[in-house]
Design a protein that fits this description.
Layout lengths: L1 E5 L4 H7 L13 E6 L4 E7 L3 H12 L7 H14 L1 H12 L3 H20 L1 H5 L2 E3 L7 E9 L2 E5 L6 H13 L3 E5 L5 H13 L7 E3 L4 H8 L5 E5 L2 H14 L3 E4 L4 E5 L5 H13 L9 E7 L3 H13 L2 E5 L12 H16 L3 E4 L15 E4 L6 H4 L6 E7 L2 H9 L6 E5 L3 H8 L6 E4 L4 H5 L12 E2 L4 H6 L2 E9 L12 H17 L3
Parallel strand pairs: 1-13, 6-7, 6-9, 7-8, 9-10, 11-12, 11-17, 12-16, 15-16, 17-18
Antiparallel strand pairs: 2-3, 4-5, 5-20, 10-19, 14-15
Helix pairs in contact: 2-9, 3-5, 3-8, 4-5, 4-8, 5-7, 11-12
């Protein structure tokens, strides 16, 4: 694999830092300093939010509920994202350490969110007509109205997609949002919030409270009317328990140990290239990344050779340009986990087919894309999420075996099937226990189909983002029905016997005519 290093902070980022972004967040607690993963140098320092800051933010946010012309705001934001696209890419890279092409995946997703939510506000939240209890006599409508204030806790790995994208869904329903972006990636949230305000969003409608996860989260849950969390399964279960005590709508996207299934008729070269995208986008720090590949034994060795060839085409390094195609891990904690998982596997008999080394010569948190064979259940990375650039490849003898192994996990977020036969691939995909399944693509096809809901099953999540489903999660439903001409009961004009006869006959006719 080739390498490249040139991580000078772009002038656009320096200019943005000079605009006092710390003034856009609420915080009176301990100071936090975020480092730039490419170099380990200080990037941004700010005071973290306390429980008192969170309470003040929720109070302020309530003044922004039902804000302005949501359609106009979201579509204008779409245009402003385009105008400031390069700065957004710079900030994502500076805070996260991913390559520019992988940062653009997030920008592409935000374009889709702003457009889809803006265009579909009336469809999602406009009044719906329904057949009444009895035709003509009953007029029925369902109305949708905001929950109020939605709390949102977003991760560091995809600050735009998994943070701002969910903010836009909550705003589309007319809510205000109190948003706890991860302390490592607060600048991205600050910039897009500024753009949303420029597009017409009241400042009160989007409050930022970065800080300690447990402290801010514990303060947020009792005060908000809905909650979105993306992060680990362990923390997600704790948050779900707190939210359940208040019966508030909750969306959770949690961990994964995502499989890719390579059937014996898969085209080798494009599948190997796809495996690199699937396993190593954002250095594997993607909830939907494949960490397990099940490859038919008849093509196993050929696939491994093609996988190594595909990796050789990539460039590992730090660059605020397209000079590097795979970037850095984000923190020492992530690097430590990757190193521990690989060393544990090797010590217990696994073979490193490719990579397997930290690269401090490129930057403090770099680790080579790594492919392992011979992984077994005694090894930590066999069933535990690594969340780094590590792919374990296993030979399998049949589609049935691949399906069984893919489903043999407590997780169920994402999966992919690779085959030269569409019908066969759909048959296999339809047997996988995952909230999102892709055919001949790693994750982008399902997740990027913004009109469809996306999320996890089993211990990978609760409820879904995207689509009309994801928009309506953040609204209350109210059914209003008007009874006309005659009540749904006997009266002085119709005896009980006559009423029963009329209603029973009417019900039979409704069934006959499928009303």
């Amino acid at each position: 694999m080739k390498t490249f290093t040139s991580a000078h902070l772009p002038p656009r980022v320096s200019d943005f830092l000079a605009t006092n972004p710390v003034g856009d967040v609420r915080g009176s607690g301990a100071q936090h300093t975020a480092l730039m993963p490419f170099t380990g140098e200080e990037l941004f320092s700010f005071p973290t939010a306390t429980p008192e800051d969170v309470a003040a933010a929720v109070t302020t946010a309530r003044a922004g509920v039902g804000h302005g012309n949501r359609r106009r705001i979201l579509l204008k934001l779409h245009d402003l994202i385009r105008k400031h696209e390069e700065l957004i890419l710079d900030l994502i890279q500076a805070e996260n350490g991913k390559s520019r092409s992988h940062a653009y995946d997030e920008v592409m997703d935000l374009y889709s969110c702003a457009r889809f939510y803006g265009v579909n506000i009336r469809k999602a939240f406009g009044p719906e007509r329904h057949p009444g209890a009895l035709p003509v006599l009953t007029k029925t409508r369902t109305q949708h109205y905001p929950l109020g204030v939605v709390g949102l806790i977003s991760p560091w790995n995809y600050p735009l997609s998994l943070g701002v994208g969910d903010v836009l869904a909550a705003l589309s329903a007319g809510n205000s949002v109190v948003h706890k972006p991860d302390s490592q990636t607060t600048l991205t949230a600050i910039l897009v919030r500024r753009l949303a305000i420029e597009a017409g969003l009241p400042e009160a409608a989007w409050q930022l409270v970065p800080g300690n996860g447990a402290e801010v989260g514990d303060a947020l849950v009792p005060l908000v009317d809905g909650l979105s969390f993306t992060g680990s399964t362990k923390v997600g279960k704790s948050i779900a328990a707190q939210a359940a005590g208040r019966l508030i709508p909750t969306m959770l996207e949690l961990g994964g140990k995502n499989p890719m299934l390579v059937l014996d008729d898969a085209p080798l070269e494009p599948t190997a290239r796809g495996a690199v995208r699937t396993a190593f986008s954002s250095s594997g720090q993607l909830c939907m990344s494949a960490e397990r590949a099940y490859v038919h034994e008849s093509i196993f060795e050929e696939f491994l050779a093609e996988l190594k060839n595909a990796l050789e085409e990539h460039v590992l390094g730090a660059a605020f340009s397209d000079a590097a195609t795979i970037g850095s891990l984000t923190s020492q904690r992530q690097l430590d986990t990757v190193v521990a998982h690989v060393e544990d596997a090797v010590s217990k008999g696994a073979t490193v087919l490719y990579g397997g080394q930290a690269r401090p010569d490129l930057g403090p948190f770099f680790y080579e894309p790594t492919v392992l064979t011979g992984v077994n259940p005694e090894m930590d990375l066999y069933a535990t999420e690594t969340f780094g650039p590590v792919l374990a490849v296993y030979p399998i003898s049949s589609d049935a075996e691949a399906i069984q192994l893919a489903n043999d996990t407590t997780y169920g977020l994402s999966a992919s099937v690779w085959s030269g036969n569409s019908r066969r691939a759909w048959k296999v995909a339809s047997q996988l226990e995952a909230g999102m399944v892709n055919i001949n693509e790693g994750f982008a096809a399902a997740y990027g189909s913004i009109a469809a809901p996306g999320g996890g099953v089993k211990e990978s999540g609760l409820n879904h983002r995207h689509g009309i489903t994801g928009m309506r999660l953040w609204a209350n439903e109210r059914t209003v029905a008007e009874q006309r001409l005659h009540p749904l009961a006997p009266s002085e004009y119709i005896s009980p016997e006559r009423f029963r006869a009329l209603v029973s006959t009417g019900m039979q006719l409704m069934k006959t005519f499928r009303l």
